[in-house]
Amino acid sequence: MAGQRPKRADTVGAKGTFDGGRASGVSVRGRPCQLVVCRGCCCGRKKKRPGVDHQGQLARLSALRDHEGRDIPVRVSTCLGICFKANVVVVQPSSEGRARGGRPVWLGDFLEDRLVDDLDDWIFDGGPGISPLPEALQQHLTSKDAEKPKKKSGKKPKKEKKPRKEKGEKGAARGKAESVKREKKSKKDKRKKAKDGKAGERA
Ligand code: FES
To answer: From the CB of 41, is ligand 1 less than 6 Å away?
Structure first.
């Protein structure tokens, strides 16, 4: 249980004060778990994920240690390809975890501070292949093949197209428009003539 184990802070620099998990039957040897933390076009960007201390999150993730007091290496990556899940963190199993069948675990929407605590607990307990993924992190489980959910169509229904006028109809309409135009012009001319006539009489 995460609550019963020594605090990570207690184990830092105090190798030998903790039995390295042997009491629980888990002995982690070889390479520890590793993290890949995405900091690309979306992950770690205030513009995309406002209200998150992205730098603070990275700093906390970079300070994680396993139950043997080993630093958890962190590799910062540029876009991992599932930006809609920003921030994305991948947990790679330790050597032993991999030998036991553990595979990289992709976590998305990794934003809240408490998730770092949950991840810390999980890695402390062994991580992928050794300890089951805590429930709190299960909700953030994703994969490199995750598909972007389609937007709900809030679009207005398309206007119905006016039926295209037939060639003959088109010609008739054009003819009508032209005759209206002609009529207007002749009225205008008449008015102009009348005006000119009156002006002549007055002169
Ligand atoms: S920026 Fe992180 S997945 Fe694209």
So the answer is: yes
